[in-house]
Amino acid sequence: MTDWTVETLSRAIAARKISPVEATQACLGRIERLDGRLHAFITVDAEGALAAARALEAELAAGHSRGPLHGVPLAYKDLCHVSGLPTSCGTKTREYFPSSIECTAVTRLREAGAVTLGKLNMTELAMGPFGDNAHHGDVQNPWRPGHCAGGSSSGSAAAVAAGFAVAALGSDTGGSIRLPAACCGVVGLKPTYGRVSRAGVMPLSWSLDHLGPLTRTVADAALVLEIVAGHDPRDGTSSPRGVPYYQRMLESPVGGLRVGVPENYYFDGIDHEMEAAVRAAVRTLEGLGVLVTPISVPDPRPLADICNVISRSESAAVHTRLARERPHELQPAVRARLEIGFHIAAHDYLQALRLRARFTREFIREVFAEVDALVLPVIPEPAPALETVKSGTVDEVVDRMGRFSRLTGPFNGLGLPALAVPCGFSSDGRPLALQIVGGAFHEATTLRLGHAYQQATTWHLDAPRSLDVDGRVIG
Fold first, then answer.
1. Residue 77 β-bridge partners
2. Domain residue spans in the chain?
3. Is the Cβ–Cβ distance between 71 and 60 less than 8 Å?
4. Sheet (strand 431-438) strand order
5. Which residues form the catalytic set?
6. Predicted local distance difference test score (pLDDT) of residue 3
7. What confidence tens digit (pLDDT) does each residue in 268-297 have?
């Protein structure tokens, strides 16, 4: 199961080596055996998944294929509204987000032939980088149970890493696709702001939210992005730009591309094994003909402060009713972060939006005039223990959250595409990862670099060592 990718499973289904029903049954069986310990899912729709798989199998028998996702089992973060299933957004309330429309990305994937396995666990209201959830259980890291799976798309990354689904959707407001991807040893892509519609998705911060795929390979991320990307009239922020053929562009040589490695900030205070792995990955890219150069980037800390004002204001507006009427239902750190937003003046919020736009223009002008992409770490340390990140006062927990997501958050503020790719393991077996950041709407360049790196390495081929061949959690 953990050897499957979208690409390999798709070929097997097309060649009639495995049927959509058999693939779906295999995923559901693995979920049933393992998820009681890993807590990747909030809702498993076994009946609906099997019904869809049988219908797709009948289509194949009649000679009709919808494409490379035909019969491939996927799952979605539980803030994506899926028709017929509840959307809790990680809260205590089963139907917290009763959207009148289905998530556009889910609809596009279903129309392309994907089977929906269910809805994935997440940090409550998408407000946290560690994957802990008091209502649905803390998502366990498949590589090392007891350690965080990252957040807030924790279930999405854990499900892909554990072989429950071959791909998943997550959302990213400050790193919530890339952080769990890095913690769980999978690929996570935050596209450019506006590249993927967020219609039918519960917002956290509409100025900073992004929707994107988590997969085992960069090639799979390119395939999923190609399907879900594109303009959507139901999302006023979605871009009208055409969608490139990302898959076809993956094999374009990366020789001659200019990659910058930040000299300031992004390697400060990084775990030594993490830094060594990322710098080794840079040398691998250099061996492929990439032109690597040290670069000084604008200090992202002012932008981080600006984005905090924006996200706190917007999240408080989105979740006012829950925070005002049922605050006792919220986890303490989530409640504390929401309540900050009620005390931010409209003047400060509007100033933050203006300053963000200026900072973005300056960053792009200074950095991407010199390089085609940046390479840097995703997380400052391998996935920490859940007990450690949850301990202490609320203020200590919130501060810890900020430190853990400090390397990803700036690129939400900038709206740039950013890709997390596995690049090794710590001495005790926790995944390590690098982050590739491209220019606006240059996902193709970002994906090409990530794919070239994976073609030259084997880190993405490993399966979690905490799961034995019988599917028991042994770590």
1. 120
2. 6-461
3. yes
4. 41-44, 115-120, 73-77, 167-172, 210-215, 187-190, 418-425, 431-438, 373-377, 258-262, 291-295
5. 77, 152, 176
6. 87
7. 999 999 999 999 999 999 999 999 999 999
